[in-house]
Write a structure and sequence with these properties.
427 residues, mainly beta, Porin, 14-stranded antiparallel beta barrel, signal, Long-subunit fatty acid transport protein
């Protein structure tokens, strides 16, 4: 595969990703109505199959996205992309409904600069996802009328990133991951008044709010390993992801039903692309894993983000709580060298995932628990088809909250090529 072909392939997928972001979200959680949406802290498909393991361990057959220091393990060219689909059963204790969402999750590539010593990576990935639809009804005080609010949200924040990793000492590598943040979160509130028979009164009103992000973020990573025998390694990894003030612009407008979301229609503009920011606290992560080379790995990792310090565009605080995530997972390859046996060459993954989410409602902080499975099936001697499945539950029906039982499925591929720097002898 020529260099120009690789560049064209990446450009085509990136263009598709950018345009598809307008219409697709990788999550469908009601709780994404809070903050700037659901954070993706579980990495790529290969990481998701292990509960999000990827800070302390990486391979040369997949882009090492979670910890840029691990990109030194990418000794050949790697191109990776994946689609994600989530189906949720939303239960309020009285009513149960189904919701879903999905789309292209990421498009990434990595290539070595000095094989085994330094590398670079680039790509586009979704950081947060907003996708919810709520109906809230109640009586208007002092009248016989009822109100019906339909509250919708879509969008999210994505990143276009450039990263590098390099060996600084024996078994010690460092990495830097710089991101350009972009994307929009769109929230619409439609209000309808109903008489005592349930018939609409007058024309429904609508509030449309759009926050469009344009800023930069940076993530640093470190990785160290040491031998534990002739065939075993112990890996230790850490990351620090700095967000801070994320700048953007807000557009808000009220009008009759169907008018507020159209800039050129009648209505009252409240905010006309006013510049401002949201404050997102930094994220830190640590991990340790044990590897039998080309056989298996098992690891334990954690991430923490002090999201109680989150500040909205309007300057409001206290909307979220501190969040942490713990992942226990691993992978096994029965026989890495079994060229004639596909099942033995396939890598099988498993994981457990627990998260105290940042969502606090009625003095209850929402918990998220999941069990993960996945694998990588060889396509040829180098490339792979990757998949991951997560079965999880989020929230509770206590105190009027919502419990979400969900299935998250990710399907992608890794195209690997060891001819990136080979000189062409024959045309």
């Amino acid at each position: 595969m020529s260099i120009s072909t690789r560049i064209k392939l990446l450009s085509a997928f990136c263009s598709f990703f950018i345009f598809s972001e307008v219409y697709s979200q990788s999550s469908a959680s009601t709780y994404s109505a809070l903050g700037i949406g659901d954070f993706n802290n579980s990495g790529l498909t290969t990481n998701q199959g292990m509960g999000g393991l990827g800070i302390s361990f990486g391979t040369g057959w997949s882009v090492n996205y979670m910890n840029p220091a691990l990109s030194t393990r990418n000794t050949i060219f790697n191109f990776q992309a994946a689609f994600n689909y989530e189906r949720i059963n939303v239960n309020s204790g009285e009513i149960s409904e189904l919701a879903d969402g999905g789309g292209l999750s990421y498009v990434l590539m990595s290539l070595p600069i000095n094989s085994g010593k330094s590398s670079i990576g680039m790509g586009i990935n979704q950081l947060t996802s907003v996708n919810y639809n709520l109906l809230v009804s109640g009586q208007v005080a002092g009248t016989d009328f009822n109100s019906l609010n339909r509250i919708d949200g879509v969008g999210g924040i994505s990143e276009a990133y450039l990263s590098t990793g390099f060996i600084v000492a024996k078994n010690l590598s460092l990495g830097v991951h710089g991101s350009y943040l972009f994307g929009s979160t769109i929230r619409t509130n439609q209000l309808t008044l109903l008489d005592e028979t349930g018939a609409p009164i007058g024309i429904s009103s609508e509030l449309y709010q759009r926050f469009s992000v344009s800023d930069f973020a940076i993530k640093g990573g470190a990785h160290y390993f040491f031998r534990a025998g002739s065939k075993h390694n112990v890996h230790i990894g850490a990351i620090y992801q700095a967000f801070g003030n994320i700048n953007g612009k807000e557009f808000a407008k009220t009008g009759n039903f169907g008018e507020a979301s159209r800039p050129d229609s009648d209505g009252e503009v409240i905010s006309d692309n006013i510049p401002g920011s949201v404050y997102v606290p930094n994220n830190i992560g640590f991990g340790i894993s044990f590897e039998k080379i080309n056989k298996f790995v098992i690891g334990l990792e954690g991430q923490y983000q002090q999201l109680s310090g989150f500040r909205s565009f309007d300057g409001n605080t206290g909307e979220l709580g501190d969040s942490f995530k713990v992942a226990l997972g691993g992978q096994i390859t029965p026989d890495f060298g079994a060229v004639d046996n596909l099942l033995k060459r396939t890598t099988y993954r498993f994981g457990l995932e627990y998260q105290q989410t940042p969502y606090v409602l009625s003095s209850i902080q929402v918990q998220d628990v999941g069990i993960n499975f996945g694998g990588s099936v060889p396509i040829n001697s180098l490339s792979l088809t990757n998949f991951a499945i997560k079965l999880g539950t989020r929230g509770t029906t206590e105190n009027g909250l919502i419990r979400e039982n969900y299935v998250n499925f990710s399907l992608g591929f890794s195209l690997n090529d060891n001819t990136w720097f080979y000189k062409r002898v024959f045309e």
